[in-house]
Design a protein that fits this description.
Helix content is 18%, strand content 18%. It is an alpha/beta fold. Mean pLDDT is 91; it is low at 1-25. The strands form five sheets. It has a six-stranded mixed sheet with strand order 1-5-4-6-7-9, with helices on both faces. It has five helices and 18 strands. The chain has one domain (2-384). This is Lysophospholipase. InterPro entries: AB_hydrolase_fold (IPR029058), DUF3089 (IPR021440). It comes from Sphingomonas psychrolutea.
C-alpha cells in the first residue's frame, strides 16, 4: 500500500474520501486576486481550454472524430476542485501548477466548458507523498484544514468579484469532492448563496445519507438528485466493476455513521436502474496507476485524439450490497462487437489489482458526457426559476 504514490499520474491520482475539517489555520491564505492562484479562469488559455476531441468507435469498428467547442456565451458557471494529484514532496502542495494539476483539469474539468464558465482554484492540497505516508501508517503533518481554507477563500473571492448572481455547478473528485462536501455543509447550506447552487457533482467521495432518504446526513438541506430538472441537489457515487464489488476493507461506498449509507446517484439514470453511459475515456488509458489500454478495435488502428467514445459499451447502475453502496460499471461484451472488451481503470501494483480502490481513477470518465449534459439541463431548469433581471 505504500506504493499508492504510483497513482501519481497526470489526471488520475486520488485520495481516500476523508473530508477536511474547516478550522482556522495559521498559514497565510493565498491571494486569489492574483490570476496565478487559479488553475483555470474563463477567457484565457489554460488547462480548461485543452483539446477535448474524441474518436468515436462504433460496434462495427467504424470511426469518426467528435470535435469540441466551448460555449461562447455560457449562462452559468462551474467551480471545480481537483483531486489528489500533487507530486510535491511536502505534506501539502505549493501554489504552483505542475504537469499533474494541469493534466487533471484538462481531463476532468475542461469538457464542462461546453456549457459553462470554468473556475478552478489552485489549493494547497494534501499531496501524494502525504497519502503514501498515511497509508503506510507513518506520522505525517498534512494539514487538511489548509486545503479546505484555501478553497473557501477562492470561493469567497469568486462570489465577490466573478459571480454576479449567476448559478453555479460545484464539481470535484476525490479529495476535491471531500473539500466541496465540507464547503457546502459549512459555508453554503443555510446561507443566501445556497439559492445559486445549481447542483453539486462530487463523485469519488462518500456522502452519508439516512437509509431510504435523500438528505439529513453529511448535508442537511442538499438532497440527492433524481431528475435532470432537479436543482440545488447533489450527485455522488463511487464506482466499482459490476463483477468486482467492494471488498470488506474498502473505504469507498461505506460510511461510519449508524443507520446511514453512502449516497449513490447514477448520472446515466438519475431515476434509478441501469443505463448505457456517455463515456469519454482516455485514449491511452487511465495513467500509470493502471494497466495500459490496448487497441480500441480488432483492427488495431491507432487513436490520435485525447479521448475515445464507445457508444453502448458501458452501463452503470447503483447497487446496495451489505454495508456498501456503489456505482456498478458493466462492460457490455458482445461477440460481434469489433471493439475491445477490456476497459482499464483498476489500480495495479506489484502485478496485482488493489480491489479496494475499485474504478476510482475513472469515476468521472465512465459517465463524463452524462455529467456534462446534466449540468446543462440543471442550469436550464435553474435559470427558468429566476426572475428575468436576477442574473447578469
Amino acid at each position: 500500500m505504500a506504493a499508492i504514490a504510483l497513482i501519481a499520474t497526470p489526471a488520475l491520482a486520488q485520495t481516500a474520501p476523508t473530508a477536511p475539517a474547516p478550522v482556522a489555520t495559521p498559514a497565510a491564505t493565498p491571494d486569489y486576486t492574483d490570476a496565478q492562484s487559479w488553475l483555470c479562469r474563463p477567457g484565457r488559455t489554460d488547462p480548461c481550454s485543452a483539446d477535448q476531441s474524441a474518436t468515436i468507435v462504433r460496434p462495427d469498428g467504424s470511426r469518426s472524430i467528435e470535435r469540441f467547442a466551448a460555449a461562447q456565451d455560457p449562462t452559468f458557471d462551474c467551480f471545480y476542485v481537483y483531486p489528489t494529484v500533487s507530486l510535491d514532496p511536502t505534506p501539502n502542495s505549493d501554489m504552483k501548477a505542475g504537469p499533474e494539476e494541469n493534466a487533471v483539469a484538462a481531463y476532468q474539468a475542461a469538457r464542462f466548458a461546453k456549457h459553462c464558465r470554468v473556475f478552478a482554484p489552485l489549493y494547497r492540497q494534501v499531496t501524494l507523498s502525504a497519502l503514501q505516508a498515511l497509508l503506510s501508517g507513518r506520522a505525517v503533518s498534512a494539514d487538511r484544514a489548509m486545503a479546505y481554507n484555501d478553497v473557501k477563500a477562492a470561493w469567497d473571492e469568486y462570489l465577490a468579484y466573478d459571480n454576479h448572481g449567476r448559478g453555479v455547478v460545484l464539481i470535484g473528485h476525490s479529495q476535491g469532492s471531500g473539500v466541496l462536501k465540507a464547503l457546502v455543509a459549512d459555508a453554503i447550506e443555510g446561507t443566501p448563496v445556497q439559492k445559486q447552487i445549481i447542483s453539486v457533482l462530487i463523485p469519488g467521495t462518500n456522502v452519508a445519507v439516512p437509509m431510504g432518504k435523500d438528505v439529513g446526513g453529511d448535508l442537511k438541506s442538499t438532497p440527492l438528485c433524481h431528475r435532470a430538472s432537479d436543482t440545488g441537489c447533489v450527485v455522488s457515487y463511487v464506482s466499482f466493476r459490476a463483477d468486482a464489488p467492494p471488498p470488506p476493507n474498502s473505504r469507498f461506498g461505506v460510511v461510519p455513521q449508524p443507520e446511514m449509507m453512502a449516497a449513490c446517484v447514477n448520472p446515466a439514470a438519475l431515476g434509478g436502474g441501469s443505463a448505457t453511459t456517455d463515456a469519454y475515456l482516455g485514449a491511452k488509458g487511465a495513467g500509470i496507476a493502471s494497466a495500459p489500454q490496448g487497441p480500441w478495435s480488432s483492427d488495431g488502428a491507432p487513436v490520435t485524439t485525447p479521448f475515445v467514445k464507445v457508444p453502448g459499451l458501458l452501463s452503470t447502475a447503483c447497487v446496495a450490497s451489505g454495508k456498501f453502496s456503489y456505482l456498478a460499471v458493466t462492460v457490455n461484451a458482445v461477440p460481434a462487437d469489433k471493439r475491445t472488451d477490456t476497459i482499464v481503470g483498476d489500480i495495479v501494483f506489484g502485478g496485482g489489482i488493489l480491489k479496494e480502490w475499485g474504478l476510482h481513477v475513472i469515476d468521472m470518465p465512465v459517465v463524463m458526457g452524462d455529467l456534462v449534459e446534466l449540468s446543462a439541463a440543471q442550469a436550464k431548469a435553474w435559470l427558468a426559476k429566476q426572475p428575468a433581471a436576477a442574473v447578469q
